[in-house]
Structures are given as structure tokens and as C-alpha cells.
Amino acid sequence: MLPTAILDELRNAVGDHGDGPQRSVITAQNQLQTYECDGLTNFRVLPAAVVLPANAQQVQAVVQVCARHGIPFVARGAGTGLSGGALPVEGGVVLSFARMNRILEIDLANQRVIVEPGVINTHVTDAVAAQGYFFAPDPSSQTVCTLGGNIAENSGGAHCLKYGFTTTHVVAMDVVLPSGEVVTLGSSAPDAPGYDLLGVFVGSEGTLGVATRITLRIVKRPEAVQVLLAAFDTVADAAQTVSDVIAVGMLPAAMEMMDRLSAAASEAAAHPNYPVCEALLLIELDGPETEVNAQMQQVTELCQRNRSWEVRVARTAAERALIWKGRKAAFAAMGRISPNYIVQDGVIPRTALPEVLDEIARMAAEVNLRVANVFHAGDGNLHPMVLYDQAIPGQEEIALDLSYRILYLCVDRGGSITGEHGVGKEKQQAMGYMFAEPDLDTMQRVRCAFDPASLANPGKVFPTPRLCGEKAGPYTQHPLQAAGIAEIF
Amino acid sequence: MEQVVTPTNLEELSSLLRTCNQQQRAVEILGAGTRRHWGNPVAATLGIQTTGLSGVQEHSWQDLTATVAAGTPWSTMQQALAQHGQCVALDPLFATRSTVGGVVATNDSGALRLRYGSLRDLIIGITLVLADGTVARSGGKVVKNVAGYDLQKLMTGAYGTLGVIAAVNFRLHPLPRSVASWTVGATEIAPLDALRHALADSTLVMEALQLRTTSSGFALDVQFGALASTLQDHAERLHFLARPLQPVPAAAEVWQLREQLFAPEQATAKVTCQPAQLAALLPLIANSGGTAVAQQTGTLLAALSAQPGLVTQLRQRAEQLGGALQLLAWPAEVAEAPPRWSEPRGAIALMREIKRQFDPQSILNPGRFVGGI
After folding, report:
1. Which one of A442, A444, A462 makes the best mutation probe of the B interface by having the most chain B beta carbons within 10 Å?
2. Residue B276 sits in a domain of what CATH number?
3. Do strands A49-51 and A93-96 pair parallel, antiparallel, or not at all (unpaired)?
4. Structural domains of chain A, count
5. Residue environment code for B151-167, b if the CB has 16+ CB neighbours within 10 A, otherwise e
6. Is A466 left (phi over 0), alpha (psi -120 to 50) or beta?
7. How far apart are the CA of B335 and the nearest CA of chain A, in angstroms?
8. Does A130 share its domain with A203?
């Protein structure tokens, strides 16, 4: 609980005088519970207050209050994150962007859209679709997740194989630094003079400050889009098809794979009429119509050469949408086949796919658990889902342990612990497995430049919190720590 | 420069920097030296040249990734990658002479940026050595990866002021199999700018799109990259969009014209703006007797007569439009060179703090960068 005087300062910052119908500072216990976790529900912390600013000035005023009193703050969009990135800090403030959801400017001549961070991902595309444009990053939660969250996590999605990630599509941002100062990072023109702080900010998981105004790049919608569904008896055959498609020089808009378990769950949830098979491949091609037609023919042949026993090309926009609906429902669909599940997010070099999947199956069998797999096969991004039952004593711990061991396996095979969900609270320790101490210390130098007091989403991303000492360089004990005034935990 | 050292491995580079840091000795970081004048001059008695760190260390062609030592000449890297029909999809200046590290440190790009993005989009990991000798890695060898801060972006375009780039992990693209380039000329910029906009707003698949000054006015060059059957369709659509102008097959050298903007007696500048503003800048340059090649991405290279007033005028115009001007070359014999960099907007205090965290004694390329960093 924050002292009344500080709460009053926060209320002043957002113009909440306690007399309007809509409060902008929430402190009631039952209302705070709405904010106690994000999409990763096994971590829960109650914040001291939730503040809902309506504009950039109010965001700055709130951060200034936090900076003045040393109160940690966590920015929150829709709370759909899967790594606990928006998990509140005990005694801290949550900055909700629910009221900052305006599209500020559309500039088709330069293919830019300027938004507030609370704008929902698909609303950008909705605003420019009539003119033939779209916003390319498409996380599965895109109909509810916000741009601010996408920026924090550098969100991807099925189509980033061809179109890149959120970072590819952000050109400038106004940011409130943890000190309360406002800076502009990047510019509408390319290559703004100076360090690429914009590039570092995107994907920093809210640990470097808060964005208040975001300039996005939009992309012209291609002339034709086709989706193909292919059924295989083995994951190896499907994976070989993916490699073959890449090897002939094609860059499909998306290449997704689902194993039997996940395809069956999606079928039950969304009824996309998927064939029942060991490995289902979904390939989307886009571009000029003549090219898409020719390439679809070629992809079909590659599927058949790798023993696909059913190749189906979606003929209509409705058929295409249904195929994608099934894929995007994959995570939520797990609820239909298991009481509980953990979604993981590892990356491996694409060619290691069959071998890594065999190993995951072996590891799961060893502890008597099932793992369903969905992956962005084109870029080697795996989403293994470890299925378990919380009601069985001890099973959750076994499932969690398995999910972390799968991440370590990804690192061992030359990959990463996260492709798009972020490190957050969930994978902090795995950072220490993927990176050496000097790597993490170097990243901390960036953190110390942006946020020396460690107020912006503290206790996330890095395995061990560090104080920013006077002297930059390899970690040494902080003077406050040496004097017993502060401790590192 | 009193001395230039060329370390041949990471350990040598690390221990060399550690020693310099202990002695507070400023060093200038060098590749092949092709872009040495793109920033402010550095007062250093020691040069560290990366050309001893050379070679494609790993090419996972099936995964479309490669790890390349920073001192590798850009074209040597491309030749090695081409053995498997792949490339780093970027066409920087002076490819035969430049090193990979130099291209990355200066964030150079060319015409292909329209289709494949800038180095920010092509680099997936980096190995760097900090001023105190710390060897650090960020990113990784997979295309999709959001673990930890994206230090590779921070290092790209930092002009060697934060650390020495030792190796770069790239995502690769297949070499385009069939391309066709067209040129459309006109005496005025307006009809070409309208065509530029029509192309950008079309669904045609373009590798590159540029506007430039010519001896008789202006020209637009476009390169399509697609299957042969699609190229035919694109050509027809280009002819339709261009009416009444007549596209002609482009001369082979149009995509290398940028290199001709560097001449000993001239000033050369990189100007940035948004695409729709290019048409405002090109006539300004042409009217003052200059030449320019501008990319649809909003980067423009201009050769100007070496008069400080001309550079200042162009810089002011670019800045009014939200862009900037960086002076890349200025004849040594002409005094009163304008500042190399535009004044950074905002965030300069934060940039100085980043520099202080990475290189607290400011031994790496001191003064070279924006704001005298």
C-alpha cells in the first residue's frame, strides 16, 4: 500500500479528483486483482495501485511521481503476454494503457501510421485496409493485444518469416524514460543521427521506459494470397518439405507446422476441417498472382515428393480464414485436451527440427507427460505445449521442469530461449544458460544508461538484478551493498 | 597515426583494448578505411585494424545464416555465400574494398534496402569487444530471437564508439534468380515522382526504386525481382503506369551510380527524409549544380560543389522535413568544412550516457560520432 500523499500525487498526475464516474487510479483490492498477472497465470503479484493515464503528459506525470519516490512501475497493454512481462511489482504501480487507444495520424504517402500504445494490433490494419495496406506483425493474440505490448516484446507472428518482426515496422517513438524525461527515439526519416536507441528499446520488455506515441510502417497488401494444407505421416517429411521450399529460393509469407495432438485440439476448438495426421503443414504464399500460382504448383510438388498424402489449397478467402483460425486457436485449444498446459517458445536452427522433436518426445515420455507442438517452421520457432494436471500433486513441478529443459535443449542446438514471447519473469534463469556473464553485464550497461534506479519493470529479463554502480564495467559489489545498506536478491 | 596494430584473433584484440583502456590511450578503429571520413576526425596515436579477423566462419546454408569475421571484405563474403546461391541482401558502397565491420559500423545501405531492409533487419547476432576488453555476444544464430537486449542494433551505425565489432551473424537471402531493371527519364521531377508514388502504392514486386538527377533532368530506375512470367507482366504494368513517359531497359550501371558521387574535388552528403519528400530535395540539388541518387526508402546521396553554404542550405531543408544531412566527403584543400553531422534531436544526453557506460574513458574513436561522442 502506498502512502496517501503519494496516491494523491498519482491522482493529480492523471486528473483523478475522485468525483468523476471513471476513476483513473485504482487501489481497491478486488479491482487490483484484475491486474495481478498477464497471460502467464502461474505468477501473480498484487500491485499497490493501477493508474490509467489518458495521454502522454499524464504518463510522464505518473512516471515523474514514481521517479521522485523510487516506486517501481510496470506498463501494461492488454495483458496477453505469455512470459510474465506485465507481472506487477509488489508495492509498485501498474500503468495501464487501456485509455490511450487512439490512432493519431495516417500518412499513406509515406506508408506510416502514428498510434498510441493502447491501440489494438488489428485496428491498425482495419484503419488502412480499404487503401490496400496492412500492419504486418501478427501475433496470434492480435485481435486483443496492443501495440505497446508488441513493442515491449518485439512480437512476431506467423508472417514474420517474410515480413519481419515488430522492430522492422517501428520507425519512431516518443518515450518517457524512467527519470520522467521525454525523448524521441528514431525518426520518420531513416537512419536518425545517433545510436539506434529505438532498435534497443523495441523488445526490451518494458525495462527501459514507456512508449507514448509510436510511428509504424505499413505494408502494401500483395495482389494474391494462397494457403496450402499438407498432411504427412512423419514430422521429418514435413520438415524436409520446409527445407526444400527454402532451398529452391522461395520465401513464403508463412510456414506453420502442427503435430497430431495440437491439430486435433485445434480441430475440436475451431473446426477447420484439418486432416488427421502426424504432421500438418500450412504454407501461405503471397505476391503477384502469376507468381503465386506458379509457386503454389511447385510447393504442391515438393509436398508430394516428401510423401504428403493430402495437399489441399484453400480456394476462397473464407477457406483461408478458417485454416488460420484453427492455427491461431492452437494455444487456447489445449484446454480441450488437458486441464492445464504450459506454452513454451524456443527457437532452433530450422534444420534441427526433426531431431529436436524426437528428443522432446523422449523427454516427455520419460516423465509420463504429453507435449503438443505447434511451430513457425519456416524460422524454427517452436511452441511446445506441456500438458499436465494441476490436481495431481507434484505434476506441475515436473511439467515446469520439462518445459525449461526443452528450452535448454534449444540453446544446446544453437537456438534461443524465446522467439517472440519474451523472457519476462518466466525465463530469467534460462537467460543465464543462453548468455555468458559478460554478455549479460554488457546488456546491463544499456539498462543502467536508461534506468539507473531500476524502476522500469524491475526484476525481469535478467537472471540476477544488478544495481547500477558509479563505475561502469564488469560487475563489482555496489558500495551500498558492501556497506550493508542494500542487498542483492 | 603513429602506429597501426592488426590483431589476428579475438584474444589479441581483447588484450590490446584492455591495455589501451588501462593506459587511457585513445584508439581509432579501422577496417579498410573506406568510410574513415564519414565521421569527425579522431585524435588517436594508435589504430586498431580489424582486417586480421577475416573469413566466413560459418555458413549454415540450409538455415540461411552465416557468421562472418568483421575484417572480411564485403565482396569476399558475398562470393563465399554465393557458392550456395545466397547473399547478405544489401548493396553497400565500395563492396570490393569495404570490410563487413566497416559497413556495419557505419550502417551503410543501398538500393536493395527497399525489399530486404537495412542492416538492422539482416543482422541476427554480434560479437564485440568493449573498451575494457570484455568480449560480449548478443542475439544468436537464429533468425527469430528476442532474448535479451538487441545490442547488434546498438552497434550498427555506432561508428566504433561503443565497442569493436569482431564478428557478425547475418540472416541470408537466396540470390535473386531473375530481375529486370527499367529507367524512365523526364526533364521535370513531378511526373517521375508521381510514377514513384504509383509504383510504391502498387502490388508490383520491386527489389529497388530510385530517383536521380541526370544531365537532361531526372530519371527513375526500378528493378523488379520475380519469376520470368511475372517480370513480363510487371513490365507491361510499368509501361501503363508511366504513360505518357516511355520506360527503357536500364543500363547495367544505374544501381552503382552512387559510387560516382564521390569525386576528389566535390563534397558528398547523405541526406535522409521521407519518401514523399524526395521530390522536394532533388531539384534543390540539381539547381545548385549538384547530382544525386535517392532511394525510395528515404536515403539520398548527393555530390555538391564544395561550398559550405550549399551544404548548410541542403541540411536546413532536410532538417525542416524531419530528416538529416551527414557530410561524407569534403575536399581536404577547401577550408571551412561544414559539420559532419546534423545536430541530434533529443536523446543526446541518453546517447552520451550509453557511451559512458560502454566506454567510460572514451578511448574508442573519441569524438567521431554525433554530438562529438
Report:
1. A442
2. 3.30.70.260
3. parallel
4. 5
5. bbbbbbbbbbbbbbbbb
6. beta
7. 24
8. yes
Alpha-carbon distance of B267 to B5, in angstroms, equals 31
Q: What is the DSSP string of B37-87?
A: GGS-----SEEEEGGGS-SEEEEEGGGTEEEEETTSBHHHHHHHHHTTTEE
Which residue of chain A is at minimal alpha-carbon distance from B227? A291
pLDDT at A479: 44
Verify that B14 and B32 share a domain, yes or no.
yes
Considering the domain architecture, whether residues B149 and B194 belong to the same structural domain is answered as: no
Given B250, B280, B313, the domain boundary residue is B250
Q: Last residue of a domain, which of A409, A426, A443? A: A426
Mean pLDDT, all residues of chain A: 92
The predicted structure's pLDDT at residue A328:
86
Residue A455: per-residue pLDDT: 97
CATH code for position B141: 3.30.465.10
Answer whether A347 sits within 8 Å of B322, measured CB to CB. Answer: no
A487 part of a folded domain? no
Distance in Å, alpha carbon of B153 to nearest chain A alpha carbon: 6
Among B189, B221, B250, which residue terminates a domain?
B250
Residue A270: inside a domain, yes or no? yes
Residue A486 has pLDDT above 70, yes or no: no
Interface of A with B in 271-310 (CB under 8 A): 287-288, 290-291, 294-295
Q: Give the domain range for residue B288.
A: 258-329
Same domain (yes/no): B299, B168 = no
**How many domains is chain B built from?**
3
The CA–CA distances, whole Å, from A182 to A64, B32, B357 equal: 10, 39, 21
With respect to residue A284, please indicate whether it lies within any of the assigned structural domains. Answer: yes
Interface residue of B14, B38, B81, B144 to substitute, partner A, most A CBs within 10 Å = B144
A/B interface, count of CB pairs below 8 Å? 268
Report pLDDT digits (tens) over B290-333.
999 999 999 999 999 999 999 999 999 999 999 999 999 999 99
Q: What is the CATH number of the domain that holds A387?
A: 3.30.70.2740
The residue among A273, A303, A331 that closes a domain is A331
Residues in chain B predicted with pLDDT less than 70, given as ranges, are none
- Judge if B170 and B61 occupy the same domain: yes
Closest to A168 (Cβ–Cβ): which among B62, B117, B345? Answer: B117
Q: Which three cell numbers stand for residue B101?
A: 565491420
Q: Which ranges of A367-478 does DSSP label H, i.e. alpha helix?
A: 395-412, 428-434, 437-450
Is any Cβ of chain B less than 8 angstroms from the Cβ of A112? yes
Interface with A, mutate which of B11, B146, B271 (most A CBs under 10 A): B146
- Judgement on whether residues B166 and B48 belong to the same structural domain of the protein: yes
In this predicted structure, what is the pLDDT of residue A471?
Answer: 45
Tell me the ipTM for this assembly.
Answer: 0.97
Comparing CA positions, the residue from A220, A233, A207 lying closest to residue A108 is: A220
Per the domain annotation, does A181 fall within a domain?
A: yes
Instruction: Clarify whether residues A114 and A145 are in a common domain.
Output: yes
Q: What is the pLDDT of residue B229?
A: 87
Residues of B whose CB is below 8 A from A204: 149-150
Pick from A132, A379, A439: which is nearest to B138 by CB? A439
pLDDT for A470 equals 46
Q: Which three cell numbers stand for residue A474?
A: 564488469
Torsion, CA B47, CA B110, CA B90, CA A216, rounded to 10: 110
Of B137, B150, B275, the CB nearest to A203: B150
Summarised one tens digit per residue, pLDDT across range A122-176 is 999 999 999 999 999 999 899 999 999 999 999 998 899 899 999 999 999 999 9
Cβ separation of A132 and B201 shorter than 8 Å? yes
Average pLDDT of chain B is 96
| Chain A residues inside the 8 Å CB shell of B172 | none
Is B368 part of a structural domain of the chain?
A: no
Same-domain pairing of B95 and B19? yes
Handedness of CA A112, A39, A388, A339 (dihedral sign): negative
Which residues from B are below 8 Å from A376, CB to CB? 144
A151 in B contact zone (CB under 8 Å): no
B195 shares a domain with B272? no
- Residues B27, B92: one domain? yes
